[in-house]
Amino acid sequence: MTADQPPAPSAEEIATLPTSLFAFPGPLRDQLVAAILDGSKTSTTGLVADYEHEGEPLPAVGERAVVVDSDDVGVAVIEVTSVSVVPLGAVDLAHARDEGEGYEDVASWRAGHERFWHGNDMRAALGDPDFTVDDATPVVLERFRVVADLRGRH
Question: Whole-angstrom Cα distance, residue 87 to residue 90?
């Protein structure tokens, strides 16, 4: 553990943490979870509209959650290190790269996210079959770090 690394959560704390879902179960979630576990994914982007639809507060620095895989098994505990809300058109290259999906420019990052956000699963989750994003759409930029690897604890 480094000086800036907080202590790992106890089993009791882990049992009380909310879950953190990346994408929907399936290949994309598996890819994102693998990137979290190998350290290449340290940021994520969510829609303010999704938080509002779910009635959930935006993430806050210091909050922890259990990352679950496509089988709903907890594989890691992450801790939020920064949160900002910006218009979609303001997302920068550093954030796009830190999402760990191999994006080398903002345009391809955005195209990939628009495919997800305009997909049937997301539109159904939002209850809006015509949902779309544009440069002004507010998004939540979240950075996090892994504080515990839960693989092998099951």
Answer: 5
- Contact between 30 and 70 under an 8 Å Cβ cutoff? The reply is yes
Reported as a single tens digit per residue, the pLDDT across 110-137 is: 999 999 999 999 999 999 999 999 999 9
Listed residue (80, 69, 59, 64) closest to 28, CA to CA: 69
Structure tokens at 31: 């890819």
Helix, strand, or coil (residue 24):
coil
Q: What are phi and psi of 56, to 5 degrees?
A: -105, 145
**Residue type (1 letter), 121:** D
Per residue in 83-113, is it b (16+ CB within 10 Å) or e — as a string? beeeebeebeeebbbbbbbebeebeebbebb
Q: pLDDT tier at 152 (50, 70, 90 boundaries)?
A: confident
Q: How much of the chain is in helix, strand and coil states, percent to nearest 5?
A: 35, 25, 40
pTM (predicted TM-score): 0.88
Question: Which tokens in the block code for residue 78?
Answer: 């992450």
Is residue 10 within 8 Å of 103, Cβ to Cβ? no
Report d(CA 142, CA 46) in Å as an integer. 8
